[in-house]
Amino acid sequence: MATQANDPVVGIVMGSDSDLSVMEAACQVLESFQVTFELRILSAHRCPQKTSQYAREACARGLRVLIAGAGWAAHLAGVLAAETTLPVIGVPIASSPLQGVDALYATVQMPPGVPVATMAIGQGGARNAALFAIQILALQDVGLAEKFRLHKEEMIAQIAEKDQKLQGRMAGGH
Ligand code: RP5
After folding, report:
1. Does position 1 have pLDDT exceeding 60, yes or no?
2. Does residue 93's CB lie within 6 angstroms of at least one atom of ligand 1?
3. Which residue among 9, 43, 48, 109 is least crowded, i.e. fewest CB within 10 A of its CB?
């Protein structure tokens, strides 16, 4: 389980504790880049006032990006985006019988004027949400930008290694 930082710059919010196994993927990425974050359970429909207040106070508290993970008719990211000027990244979660397609549409289809940067459904989306948050923060943090550049280089190296192994197997006839 991730540890919370004293001065978080990323706020990760999820609609329920049942979303935690997905959103932990975002925590792991932020931890690996040493980006401070807080993790909260807030709900657009179960505690709308508290959720709005969180978003309204987020910027003054020092948060710079919000990540919101929610399932079903997921309003969480949209409500946060409505109440803050910070960028909001949405992660649709497959917790309903529609396997997250409902949450994807609810999150991505924000009406013009209030954008939510929407990632893929599930853990992959949660990972990407953290990486996208890092890219935003890196615009004003040279050290973080360098870490992100190294992350991209690592991916290039990993693919090259996989390809080399494959070519070796193909040449060997198995
Ligand atoms: C959404 O409803 C949450 O984001 C969660 O994905 C889903 C189910 O919540 P629980 O019934 O498990 O609390 O609001």
Report:
1. no
2. yes
3. 109
- CATH classification at residue 120: 3.40.50.1970
pTM beyond cutoff 0.90: yes
Which residue among 12, 16, 17, 50 has the greatest number of ligand 1 atoms within 8 angstroms of its CB, and so is best to mutate?
Answer: 16
Residue 86 maps to a domain: yes
Strand partners, 69: 14, 91
> Is 72 close to ligand 1, i.e. is its CB under 6 Å away?
yes
CA pair distance 39, 4, nearest whole angstrom: 7
Q: Find, among 70, 77, 73, 63, the residue nearest to 117 by Cα.
A: 77
Average pLDDT, the chain: 96
* Segments forming the whole domain that contains residue 158: 142-174
